[in-house]
């Protein structure tokens, strides 16, 4: 259930009230790699708690990915 909640929040439009919750906002940015075809098979797999992306060295810093 937690995965589904965070995944749903990751697809909310920018400016949605739920994205004022820091974890949801951070995970929305983190989840963008899931949809970046050049990165999705190598980085940022866990969108709820990215601990194991650190453990397995599959973490990619979000601001390196989502430069606006």
Structure overview:
The mean pLDDT is 84. Helices cover 41% and strands 0% of the residues. The protein is built from four helices and no strands. It has one domain.
End-to-end Cα distance, whole Å, is: 31 Å
**Secondary-structure class:** mainly alpha
Shape: globular
Largest sheet: none
Q: What is the radius of gyration computed over CA atoms, rounded to a whole number of angstroms?
A: 12 Å
Order of helices and strands: HHHH
The number of helical segments is: 4
Record the SSE blueprint:
Layout: H1 2-10, H2 22-31, H3 51-55, H4 62-65
Quick structural summary:
With 68 residues, the chain is mainly α.
Question: Can you give keywords for this protein?
Answer:
41% helix; 68 residues; globular; 4 helices; mainly alpha
């Amino acid at each position: 259930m937690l995965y589904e909640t965070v995944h749903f929040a990751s697809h909310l439009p920018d400016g949605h009230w739920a994205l004022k919750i820091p974890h949801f906002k951070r995970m929305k940015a983190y989840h963008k790699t899931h949809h970046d075809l050049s990165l999705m098979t190598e980085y940022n797999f866990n969108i709820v708690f990215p601990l194991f992306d650190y453990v397995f060295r599959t973490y990619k810093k979000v601001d390196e990915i989502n430069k606006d």
